[in-house]
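Sequence in, structure out. Go.
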Amino acid sequence: MAVPCVRVPVDDGEATRQRLADADLIDDTHAIAAADGALHIPVTDAAAVPDALSVVSFDAPPRRTQTTPADILGFDPSYARLGDIVIVDEDDSDRAHAIADAVVESDIPVEAVLNRASKIKGEQRVREWDVIAGDSTETVHREYGHAFALDVAAVYFSPRLATERHRVVEQVTAGEHVFDMFAGVGPYAVPMASAGARVVATDVNETAIDYLQANAARNGVADRVTGVAGDVREVAGEYTGWADRIVMNLPHTADEFLETAVALAGDECTLHFYDIQHEDGRFDAGEAAIRAAARPAYDVTVATRHTVRSYAPHEFNVVLDVSLSRR
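Output:
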């Protein structure tokens, strides 16, 4: 029986599935199927699918019943997937181990289950983990056709930002000079290079830069990505006036680097500035800081004020897409 399905290239399958799952649009009664080099993801409401995705009628097979962790536990546990790692966030060790056992026994493909053992800390933005199943904190995460190797115990990475990263990457045009100031393992830098940009990417975490360079090679863009380990403020002098686009994804303290960003900006430059602010006036502080740093050298135009996600009660992760035009 034909049902509405989103048709996507195989490489984009997992990212698209996650996007549809986040919107509660996955039809769980039918299986995802491959045909003619594409994946067909059954959806419950074709009209609600984002316009950028293609919906077709496809004869998707009924979904085979799978054993889930909830089937084993008798309750629906909270967990996240990153590559072949499952991440839980439980204060109760016994509960964490029970969830890990259920995940391993279920039909979820998994190599390790980790429990968060600390908050993100330090300028390298890493956290401690309890490995409660398996023996590795390293994995390969796939996102919108790109693969990123990483070690969650050594670098910062958030799969929850995949849709936001893709939103920004889609704005990039071939030939741009892009400077990623806090690049991590390359989830902005690598896709931007794939879009034809020349990318300079910095991070204070040397391990993250090692992964970034390996990921650039893994995705076939090593010739367009320059990874630099170190404080961006110490690197910027080599790239004064170079950038057509700058990514500032360090939400808690990005404002401290605005002077450096302005120095990097070319005559026309787009700035993607990430911030964490209270729900009231959530864009105001960032916009004021950008204008103070850029003027009088630049005219400042805010193109987009976008809320990325809820961060904490009454606090939001937001982004400003800002155009700088030299006077």
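Check: The CA atoms of residues 302 and 313 lie 26 Å apart. The chain has a mean pLDDT of 94.
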